Amino acid sequence: xxxxxxxxxxxxxxxxxxxxxxxxxxxxxxxxxxxxxxxxxxxxxxxxxxxxxxxxxxxxxxxxxxxxxxxxxxxxxxxxxxxxxxxxxxxxxxxxxxxxxxxxxxxxxxxxxxxxxxxxxxxxxxxxxxxxxxxxxxxxxxxxxxxxxxxxxxxxxxxxxxxxxxxxxxxxxxxxxxxxxxxxxxxxxxxxxxxxxxxxxxxxxxxxxxxxxxxxxxxxxxxxxxxxxxxxxxxxxxxxxxxxxxxxxxxxxxxxxxxxxxxxxxxx
Length: 268
Known about the structure:
Blueprint: E1 7-12, E2 15-20, H1 31-46, E3 52-57, H2 68-71, H3 80-102, E4 107-111, E5 114-116, H4 118-124, E6 128-132, E7 136-138, H5 152-160, H6 162-171, E8 174-176, H7 177-183, E9 188-190, H8 193-208, H9 212-228, H10 230-244, H11 248-259
Parallel strand pairs: 2-3, 3-4, 4-6, 5-7, 6-9
Antiparallel strand pairs: 1-2, 7-8
Helix pairs in contact: 1-3, 4-5, 5-6, 9-10
């Protein structure tokens, strides 16, 4: 991707980096970014070389939220047809975050600095979130007389509990990385951005070295359990394993165990 585009894609082995690329604007979220996200994650979903995706940001902030200057054009004089256009636009923006969540590859968010509003929506759509000590989060929409509508209200309760999610969304208050760790929104707290990137890539490489189809199956089953409950998910995962096993990767894991060597998984 070109340097002037809202996202930049880099890769190192089987780990792909999606980089928010508007540091001069604190990586505020623009219409161009919302359009680029689902296309990029569909590409990553289909790329057999991509096993883990890391989302991070250039500059001083992960994201200061929606670019209000650009988004202002979305609010027209209130008429029946303009309201319908806005409803469809919101559905399209929701699809940008859904594209992250529905990507079969695990997605890890590395958060530093401010992560506000739409930035929290983006993080909630990821599978794992880790942050540096300077990270500050806020479900800020209520302070702009809006209801958060890109996924935070739907996903955050499953991450931190209903009561905590309600308190954060109803107040719009800031919460720092230590509190985010305490409540379970992030899983790891790093000293600074350098340490964050180091730990993020260590984690990504650890997952990328594992059998990719099993990793993708775990992500799929976890989402299914959240959406449909444990009983339905038990039947779902039984059918999933019955359809996939034995696999070449399973045989490789067993051979490597008996030969006391590191397995090499190919996703077959």
